[in-house]
Amino acid sequence: MNNKLSRREFIECAACGVMALSLGTLPLKSAQADSLPDLTDGKHIFVTKEAMYYEKLHENEIRCKLCPKECVVGDKERGWCGVRDNRQGIYYTMVHSNPCAMHIDPIEKKPFYHFLPASLAFSISTAGCNLNCKYCQNWQISQYRPEQTDNVYAPPELVVEAAQKRKCQSIAYTYAEPIVFYEYMLDTARIGRKAGVKSVVISAGYIYTDPLKELCETVDAVKIDLKAFSDKFYREICKGTLKPVLDTLKTLKQMNIWHEIVDLVVPTLNDTEEEFKELAKWTVDNLGPDVPLHFSRFHPTYQLKNLPYTPLKTLETARQISMDVGLNYVYIGNVNPDHEGNNTYCPKCHKMLIERYGYIIRKNDVANGRCKYCGNEIPGVWE
Amino acid sequence: MSSSGKYKESRREFLKKTASVGLGLYGMMQLGIDFPNVDAADVESKVVIAQDDKVIDKQNTVVESIVQKLLDNALMNLAGVKNRKAAWSRYFNKKDVVGIKVNTLAGRHMTSHVQLVKAIINSLKSISIPEENIIIWDKADNDLTGAGYEINISRKGVKCLSTESTVGYTDLIMYGSIASCYSRILSNCTALVNVPVLKHHSMAGVTISLKNWLGAVHNPNKYHFDAAADPYIADINMPDILRKRRQLIVCDALVAQCNGGPGFNPNYTWNCNSLLVATDPVALDSVGTRMIEVKRKEMKLSSLKDAGIEPKYIAIAADKEHRLGMNDLKKIQLVKV
Q: Would you say A125 and A178 are in contact if contact means Cβ atoms under 8 Å apart?
């Protein structure tokens, strides 16, 4: 391509945080092809790499073993995620080093409330998702294929370098579904760790245990979007199933990876008091009382434009029920920036420890991982 | 065709048809297809199979003059007229912008042949449709060029372009089980020639005319799994952006494939030397599926049903909710020319 961007220019651009969802006007850099067959189109997809976690079947078919969809994919076809492609019996990822979104965000936006508060996360995403939630807020990348998004060529080392340059303490794999760019995420996290940049994953957690465990070796925190505590909801609204997500949460605990949970509350679909109670009880029983749980407000979008915003009262009820069941850190998101459900309170002395105004930290009284007032240990990653 | 999609004919046409059903059955025996004896009074749809064993030469090249003849003969029979212009004028007019949707995913060896598309263009031009109003298109440039098409996005001549490199997709359109953005190329066309390839599909059972429209949406990967049994493919055909446009189907069965699809697999291809032409996609797909089943049996492969990929979506497309055409072979007039 003629419009090449030098390595330095790319980092400058990335650092400015201007590479938003529409990158059409930015000059793009062409990639060096690797030794694999050239599947790129020279415009949207710069690199293709053989995928991890799949097995070969007969007649050039493959079975993907990355996520519970276990797609059996014929030659010339894609997996359900839309980003893994079978070419003559070899499965390729089309999104390695091809992000379509790149921003610098406060870590609170993810949301992580117990992970390096007030730090910046260099946030990247590619096209594709292995679910299809009817209320997806990022469907124009998650439900698109990589040929349909405006991508930049950003190999792992360049992402790490850009994060460092902008003093981001972490790289966040986010927006759509990072499981579908597993290989890219893994390679970037490995290089990031060597360079002292942490990695955080914002995911629906629809992944098999083996690849998850391998990922846990190199990332520092995972936020799981637990869509509902109902298999029916998963099947009808998200095209997935509940159990694998619960298994993922258990694995994260077992692997000692810091994790927080978000439950986006959709009016009439996953907003009963019984469901809130079951979710909280399962969390306490299986993950313990200290896992932060965020109830987030739904807004009408994508295929669910016929439903109203979640009433604040519903979110407050969900929070209260969860705390009554025994969870220590329950938050409310996408509401008034100064709502008390945004703040962190010490479960022992009940003093406010972290006061938030939206994504801004107004005060932080967690010192060395403990309550400044009573010395109670506050779980999380604080430095 | 009537507005309801039913095939209605005059008394004269009816008598002609009664004769052609008999000829058709003879032809089908030649093709090795076991079709029921159709009572002319029950006919609700018509599929024409044009076949010539010389259409592919010894160098495995499609002979342009023969494919042109096959195409025009098929269309004349479908339209029930005796000359090419009258036949093509039955489906298109000179003010039309015609989109020719090819199927190029599997590459040069298992594609809508360039020679066939040339023949379609010649015939469209014969009724004074200007080249500039004809668009050959598919999902991706890579697929088109890989199948032997030359991209042309200039204002001159027949355009050849892909959705993803040019106009992109519409806003979200929802129907039944699907939520997709459709190619904006469709919005620019007043009429369509759907040119699928007759082939097996490992997830949908077969991919013929109904499934070819998965190449017109942004997220076909969401509809492949369990595609044989689910309503996705039928639903994809339902929105107005497709249904409100006149559609002629010219299925490329010059080379067909009965297993290992949708990619090219030479172990399962055969020179079928045929075109299947219809306006009813359900009828054409029902006939095409039968042809693939016959070939599978001949090659000692299990039936699509036994393989777990019986293309039930064809029956779904014919049901009361969809009414996209006729899937009952007893009500499809099958004519071989």
A: yes
